[in-house]
Design brief:
Layout: E1 2-4, H1 6-14, H2 18-37, E2 54-57, E3 63-70, E4 75-83, E5 87-95, E6 101-106, H3 107-123, E7 133-137, H4 141-153, E8 160-165, H5 168-173, H6 175-184, E9 189-194, H7 201-211, E10 214-217, E11 238-241, H8 254-257, E12 264-266, H9 269-275, H10 277-281, E13 289-291, H11 292-298, E14 313-316, H12 321-337, H13 358-362, H14 374-378, H15 388-396, H16 402-407, H17 413-430, H18 438-457, H19 467-472, E15 481-485, E16 489-493, H20 498-516, H21 540-546, H22 553-567, H23 576-588, H24 598-614, H25 640-652, H26 655-661, H27 664-677, H28 682-699, H29 713-736, H30 768-793, H31 796-818, H32 836-854, H33 880-908, H34 917-934, H35 940-956, H36 961-987, H37 998-1011, H38 1049-1055, H39 1063-1066, H40 1082-1086, H41 1103-1109
Parallel strand pairs: 1-6, 7-8, 7-10, 8-9, 10-11, 11-14, 12-13, 12-14
Antiparallel strand pairs: 2-3, 3-4, 4-5, 5-6, 15-16
Length: 1125
Amino acid sequence: MHLLPEPAVARLLRELSREQCYTLLDALSESLVNTSSQATAPAAERLIHQPLRTSITTKDQHTSLFMPVSNTANTGIKIVTQSQAHGLIGVINIFSPEGKLLGLLSATEVTAFRTALAVMTLFVRCSTVGKEKIVIFGSGRQAEWHARLALLLVADQVRSITFINRGCKRLREMKEVIAELQSAHPHVTWTTLAREDTPDHQEQLRSALASCDVIFSCTPSTEPNFPYSYLQPFKKRFISLIGSYKPHMKEIDSETLFSGGNTIYVDSKEACLEESGELIEAQVKEDQLMEIGEIYGKLPRTHPIMVPDGHNVVFKCVGMGIMDLTIGKTLLDLAGLGQLKRPRVSDENRKRAVRACDGCRRVKEKCEGGVPCRRCLRYRRQCMFTHPDHAEKVARSSSISLLERTTGLSRQNLVDSERIRYMERIIQHYVPNISFDIQSLRKTAEELNPRHRRSFTEGSTSIRLDEDDFEDLAIDDEDYMVKALPDNTTQYSGEFSYLNFSMKIRKKIDEWMKTAAPEASTETEPFEERWRATQLQSSSSLVSASITCLPPRFVADFLVQIFFKYAHTNNFYVEEDWLREKLNVCYTNPSSLSSDDAGSVCSILMVLAVGTQFAHMESAIPINRPAVDLSLMEDHHFSEDEVGLTFYQFASKLVPDILATVSIRSVQACLLIGTYLLPLDTSGLCYTYFGLALKMAIQNGMHRKYQGEGLSPRMIEVRNRVFWTAYTIEKRVSILHGRPLSLSDSDVDAAMPVDFPDLNPVGQVSNHTNMVTLITLTLKLGEVANEISVLRKSRKGQQQDCLERQLNLRKNLVDWWATLPEETDCRDLNSTGPLFRSNVHLKLDYCLTRIFLGRPFLFSSMKILNPTTPQAAPFKTPSGVSKNRSTLITDCVEAALEIINLCQLLRDESGLARASFTEFSSCRAALLVILAQSLTKRTERLREALEKGMVLIKIMSMGVGSARSAVSVIETLERAIRRLEEWSERQAPDNTGSMESAYDRFKNWEMLWKTGPMSPELVPLQEQYHAGRGSIPPVPVTPMASTPGGNDPMEADVASTEITTLSDYSVSHATSLPQMPRFGFDHFVSNFPQELDEFAAIPCFEPDAQHLASDMGNPDTKWVQFTHD
């Protein structure tokens, strides 16, 4: 048991290292996550319990407050007593789960520390908010600890700290504290400001607040410390409030409270609504509050919290008992270990991460830092941070009981218990009837050992490995290298590359020479570390010839302006100032260009080519917003397309030189070529060029975090932005068009883009927030795609779990979207906003992700019935799986309808762009979903959206050949469904269940024959003829040619499928078509085989249909092949 009185606690906290402080911060963040996640769980299943506080008052007027709390791993109670003689005295008791007292520590210093640390959990994550100028209201321990922790965690960012208080006395008492901090941080400017004895106090206060970045308010004030008007000019600020703890207290006014865009961060919604005077006076509702534990649970530990421009971060913290327990227990562990502050090594002199994870420590690898660390992420292993030294110490001490060893574990206990529960659930699934008591598990494990040894020795002699042998298996330190070279090129060498191994040998030789022959020369022979195939580059004449196609300067300037205005949106392709500078060289000094400028010239030509695709957006005549009559649109020709094609043809001649130089300009050039080809050949040439861009980015190490010193901060940011643009577009194209990914998420640790004003296009608002949001959205789309892939391959017994994970992905996606800013960036759809078009594109991508989530289940909702069965068996009551699937389908259809409305909004405001991949692909996906849903459910809303969408997609496909091809497929589907509707309306009054005549069958066949051109092939009728009913045999399809297979191999593939009837899967639905006769469907399908690949139904994922099939003869259940051919 440990006893920590007030002096010991104060000394321990003040000697914390930065590493130890982050340990405490991580532990506190994790406890907040667990508290928020279990708020709605049943009491019997909760791991965290915080009963109501109770108090007693003795006859001597001594009042004691009791605050119990438990996180299952430990139990604690904080007792605070107030007396007239001694004021407030508090103590925190920490117990083991069994009730053994582990330690006691004074509560006064801990309370101030843990409250300030709770503020820091959010403070350090708001990376886009400045931290240079800090203003602290207050002069007590809370104010002191806010300053101490800010300097400990972000010392390199803080430039000035100002303490503001009502009286001078308390500020004078802080003189020693300020002197101590000033000596430790001489680069920080310290200022104090008291209301009393300061005539111009308000002017000084206004000045301090107007320029500050951070406001820590730590005063139990009953009036606001300052008016909102003092915060002008309006900019991002971090504002925390921890001083007011009663309903009549308030530290800021309501206008400041809502300056975070109507989002107020809190530690506990329930406690803040009851105790915070600011929230009570402003009548804040619960849905306006956001618990930080809930946010931390949704984001990785290293993921920053994005703050929109012009918004503040407002955080109200009233404190919880779980904070005392978490910090108290962790401090007891530190005190027991003697882990006081050691001499600090500067970050630039460190050879390893500040804190190594357990996995890297175990195998003696160099931990690369981060949570999870990059090495664990790369090797796909679990990354954990515990206190192994203490665990080893406890394990070695034979005099300590098992109970004490258990209580010596770190804050991972809570996570470990949850992990064990999940493991037990998995084992129980694969090993039924297993018992988890120690004896049964020991017996089962011992039975496994002989089997393992027998299987191990069947092919070889018996080998016994000692613990020391395993130590020899540890891999020595391996690290990647990104070396800066001239011409914006970098050389990347992975951890286990030839070059790295060569350098390791060289290093070993140098070490051996210093030891064995110190008198020998230490000079090392130089050798060429990087060799380029320069002999493959063309002469400079090819570059000079390429710029001969440049238009007059005013035309080039116009096309460049169009590119950055309409094509840039939420991505980053090239720096505008650099591009215009290079363009000026092409016009004023073309002779200075060499073969090394191939990437730059190619980028210029492709910017102009993409500009021609969007040039129509500036037309005075709204050619992209025609009248309702679309008959003349199909063959509409844009003369500027020929100009763009000329630029592309000249640029494509430079591709060999681009591939040979492999610089960042090469990456940008291929990225721009792929962007030009997006509307022309998305899944072909476009996909190829994006793959080239990504491969060259890997060659330059752009997918890894750059830690060298050879590149400027601007170029590092350009590298990061260009890589993430290439990665996100290639990933979206690959997923949406069924292509394998070129790079997995686990291989990427490049830094996210940061707000770099120098890179913003001239006259435009920064799109940094949208850019990061699109990257995050694309990563979420990748998670959805992976989960769908798992679902397709999983067994029937596992499909329900997969479906639940799909629902969780949807919930997380929707919740994450709700946290994005609603002004200027992301969700601001005000047509007069500076980022209107970019925000609409972001919303389209968001809706497209929701479509992708639910699209695989659209066809699985169609029940399989045998139409020849007079009375079908009744349907079951919808199961939980059916309801979950229905939720995904409903959201998918709603997202499709939202896309149509968003495209209509674009058309009505700024106009639709015929070259926009985002607009066309989202509208295309939405129309396909609406058509698929129309097979089973026809409503006026769907019909109106379909009509509106057809008009919009025809506008977007004007003059784009590949787009017109895709639209023609959708038109074929739409005509077929419309004809089926007309037929069903004619047949509904006369449908009495009687069998149709041969003439009826002939007319049905004629209806489909008119839908589109027939396949010129002999298609055997696969429909089963049910004899014995007195019906006339079906009419076969007349062959159009005598050659089997016809001229189109694609049609031959479709003809070989077993899809024969629409009625097999579209009838007997509550709102579907009435019962229809069976008719050949082969030629109808053969006209649009590729488009139906957009819908990948989950095979065999139809429990209701399987249930029915057992009672219905032999219905054709292979209709799902419809989605693959």
